[in-house]
Amino acid sequence: MRIVFISANNYKVPYPVYPIGIAYLMTYINQRFPACSTCLFDCNQGDMEELGEFLRQDRYDLAVVSLRNIDDVNIFEQNSFLAHYKRVIQTIRQNSSARIEIGGPAFSIFPELLFRELQPDYGAVGEGEETLAALIRHFDRPEEIQAIEGLVWQDAEGQIVINRREHYVSAPTLQFDSGAAAYYFEQSGMLNIQTKRGCPFRCIYCTYPLIDGRKVRTLDARTVVDNIEQIYRTHHVDYFFFTDSVFNIRKDYNEELCRRLIERSVNIRWGAYFSPFGLTYADLELYQRAGLTHIEWGTDTFSDQQLELYGKNFTYSDIRRTSQDASKLGIFYAHFLILGGYGETDATLDETFERSKQLGLTVFFPFIGMRIYPRTILYDYAVRDGVIRPEDNLVNPTYYVSPHIDIATIAPRARATGQAWVFPDDDHSDIMARFRRKKIRGPLWEYLRYAARPTFIPNAV
């Protein structure tokens, strides 16, 4: 069997992201089906004309298409990627006889809608490794295909069927594609990798539980370090970003992972998404010894009232304490916020702006309003409050913005604090490109701690 894996994502803001989901899928299939021939086409590195030519060069039995995001999650732009995904599927149909399976985060959030819009042969909800493996095993037996866990398919009456998933992959391994790894490390200054899947938290707006499930599954720590060491030794990749929903979910696992990195003397730096919940100074100290240099806090707000409304399990005192701990250790950190979301008032906004002055030398990345997704708590609130109707499909970006605030006032009020605020419509691409040309690795937002401040002088960079 010949399988072509296609990463449909072509969005490069703020930088192109290595297609990690496809990489795990390919590794899983290559290990279990050595007789299968697999190859990768990446829409960040090729357009639709090149995809068509690529498909015509060989005969494929199956095209596996990963859909990363449904839109840019930017209220100022509201770019939907659905039209691009349609062009990808059309290009496959026009240039290949391969059956098509689609999956990825966007599909897991909107499985029925995207199945109807894109008309693939199959879909996969959630992690796709074993769903794809089962599809390959039963490829010529349609009656058995229809029972595969996590599979999405259309019955004879035209109904979309979404099969439940009961089992998860315990220890997936990863082999980086050499060409793709070189491209992404050059363009973005990092590669991404997982250490765990699933999220147990209940933030009202979040889709991670829809994508990965609520059950947390840790990947084998030895294997993760093996993967990191292999790409470090072969391609000199020395910066990684752990793409877990929240890195510090499992303390005992993280300790094992970090001790293995230290013992193996893999000289890498890394960053991850963190929560202030249950995080100690000793934890951060160990992570730093293992290479941690950047923390991206998913704090959302600095108002305790809003933290409770958003479903967070920590308070502002936790945010301040962990930020101060990171500062003492010299770890760079940024806070990602949601301003003007559910329940926001001018008073809670003022509280967030005032408290932003207490968090040291950091960068604030605020999103305005909350993107509404189906099957979230926010969705129920939005229906109740008349922001959306139950029949709205939400594939086009739709936001919950608190009726108690004027979003036009948010940016001026934020900048009046004198802190470094980077809004979604701010353009610092020239500064970032300058550092990339100097081969500086990592996310680079720490440099915006200065560039985004009102008193910043461009010639100083």
Write a structural description.
With 461 residues, this protein is α/β, with parallel strands linked by helices. The chain has two domains: 2-162, Cobalamin-binding domain (Rossmann fold, 3-Layer(aba) Sandwich), CATH 3.40.50; 190-460, pyruvate-formate lyase- activating enzyme (Alpha-Beta Horseshoe). It contains 19 helices and 17 strands. The chain has helices spanning 20-32, 48-56, 82-95, 105-109, 111-118, 129-137, 142-145, 178-188, 208-212, 221-235, 251-264, 281-289, 304-309, 316-329, 346-355, 377-384, 410-415, 429-437, 448-451, and strands at residues 2-7, 37-42, 62-66, 99-103, 122-124, 151-154, 160-162, 191-193, 196-197, 217-218, 239-242, 269-274, 292-300, 332-339, 363-368, 370-371, 399-400. Strands 2-1-3-4-5-6-7 form a seven-stranded mixed sheet, with helices on both faces. Helix 1 (20-32) links the parallel strand 1 (2-7) and strand 2. It is globular, with a radius of gyration of 22 Å.
Please name the defining characteristics of this protein:
Rossmann fold, 7-stranded mixed beta sheet, 461 residues, single chain
Concise structural overview:
This protein has 461 residues and is α/β, with parallel strands linked by helices. The protein has helices at residues 20-32, 48-56, 82-95, 105-109, 111-118, 129-137, 142-145, 178-188, 208-212, 221-235, 251-264, 281-289, 304-309, 316-329, 346-355, 377-384, 410-415, 429-437, 448-451, and strands at residues 2-7, 37-42, 62-66, 99-103, 122-124, 151-154, 160-162, 191-193, 196-197, 217-218, 239-242, 269-274, 292-300, 332-339, 363-368, 370-371, 399-400. Helix 2 packs parallel to helix 3 (82-95) and helix 10 (221-235) packs parallel to helix 11 (251-264).
